[in-house]
Automatic annotation (TrEMBL):
F(1)F(0) ATP synthase produces ATP from ADP in the presence of a proton or sodium gradient. F-type ATPases consist of two structural domains, F(1) containing the extramembraneous catalytic core and F(0) containing the membrane proton channel, linked together by a central stalk and a peripheral stalk. During catalysis, ATP synthesis in the catalytic domain of F(1) is coupled via a rotary mechanism of the central stalk subunits to proton translocation. Pfam families: ATP-synt_B. It is a single-pass membrane protein. GO terms for cellular component: proton-transporting ATP synthase complex. GO terms for molecular function: proton transmembrane transporter activity. It comes from the Eukaryota. InterPro entries: ATP_synth_b/b'su_bac/chlpt. The chain crosses the membrane at residues 26-49. CDD domains: ATP-synt_Fo_b. Belongs to the ATPase B chain family. It is found in: Membrane. Residues 71-98 form a coiled coil. This is ATP synthase CF0 B subunit.
């Protein structure tokens, strides 16, 4: 046991032929030992390494397939979105054109309606002015007639005496009687 410990402690020292130890001197290492170790690693590790590489290859291929599928789906969705965008843009343009047409039509309708309303108000104003003029003229006529009547009655009252008054009444009654016969 002491030899094993000594061989680990003094790394640069070769142990005796009957003991076990590690040779850390790379230049002094036997090529046969290295080739045996490498051969054993390749022989036993080849299957494990091959399986690891195959699994890694499969995962990469699956990832690539999934990525291609996702890419295809994304491209399809992008095309659908572009188509919808074009459709919405066309509808927006149509709404815009229709909106401008509708606004212009409403503006013209509003102008025409306002013009008609102004004409009606002008007609109502003229009718009101004519009505008020007629009313004023009738009031003046009525007043002139009343004043003329009052003046005539005043003149008749001052000029007529009872006898003349009775004679005038009889003459008028006679004329009415002649007309009715």
């Amino acid at each position: 046991m002491k030899n094993v410990t000594d061989s680990f402690v003094s790394l640069g020292h070769w142990p005796s032929a009957g003991s076990f130890g590690f040779n850390t001197d790379i230049l002094a290492t036997n090529l046969i030992n290295l080739s045996v170790v490498l051969g054993v690693l390749v022989f036993f590790g080849k299957g494990v390494l091959s399986d690891l590489l195959d699994n890694r290859k499969q995962r990469i291929l699956n990832t690539i397939r999934n990525s291609e599928e996702l890419r295809g789906g994304a491209i399809e969705q992008l095309e659908k979105a572009r188509t919808r965008l074009r459709k919405v843009e066309m509808e927006a343009d149509q709404f815009r054109v229709n909106g401008y047409s509708e606004i212009e039509r409403e503006r013209l309708n509003f102008i025409n309606s306002t013009s008609n309303t102004l004409k009606q108000l002008e007609n109502y104003k003229n009718e009101t002015i004519n009505f008020e003029q007629q009313r004023a003229i009738n009031q003046v006529r009525q007043r002139v007639f009343q004043q003329a009547l009052q003046g005539a009655l005043g003149t008749l009252s001052s000029c007529l005496n009872n006898e003349l008054h009775l004679r005038t009444i009889r003459a008028n009654i006679g004329m009415l009687g002649a007309i009715t016969d």
